[in-house]
């Protein structure tokens, strides 16, 4: 009987220790740098900050100087034309070099993501448009190539866009578990 109680006690200690350490360890794998900036601009645009974090993680791994071969820049990997549009809508001066500034990039990127959510009315096609282009996603939806459902990502014609949406949704779920205090 005493042996059983000792095992039970050790099991309780182990569970308590793991429940304390695992979330902290997972946060090392899924950090939330630029937290204050992300929260500020996500809230300003009516977005969940953890969605902005998930997009940023997938786009740049939070590296502010990231630049794609296609010319996308900064944390949220904004194309210069998209950034120019966002800056104009926000009444900000457009400066392509400032796309490497975390605050400027997150402000413009948050506005653009919110605009896509308003336009498409659903997260999954909005994310697809963020990566694959608004016109392409409208075309896929109108022609019945894709129904806009996250369960049917295999219908998305662009492999990169399929993977982007899948990764952002997965990262978003993980961020919501690890950072319940960020809303």
TrEMBL record:
SUPFAM superfamilies noted in UniProt: Lysozyme-like (SSF53955)
Keyword Lyase listed: yes
Enzyme class: lyase
Gene3D superfamilies attached to this UniProt entry: 1.10.530.10
Segments forming domain Transglycosylase SLT: 40-143
Keywords, ordered alphabetically: Lyase
Keyword Lyase applies: yes
GO molecular function, one term: peptidoglycan lytic transglycosylase activity
Stored InterPro entries: Lysozyme-like_dom_sf, Transglyc_AS, Transglycosylase_SLT_dom_1
PROSITE patterns: TRANSGLYCOSYLASE
CDD domains: LT_Slt70-like
E.C. code: 4.2.2.-
Gene Ontology biological-process entries: peptidoglycan metabolic process
CC annotations in GO: membrane
Listed Pfam families: SLT
Family statement drawn from the similarity comment of this UniProt entry: Belongs to the transglycosylase Slt family.
Protein name, UniProt field: Soluble lytic murein transglycosylase
Protein's organism: Neomoorella stamsii
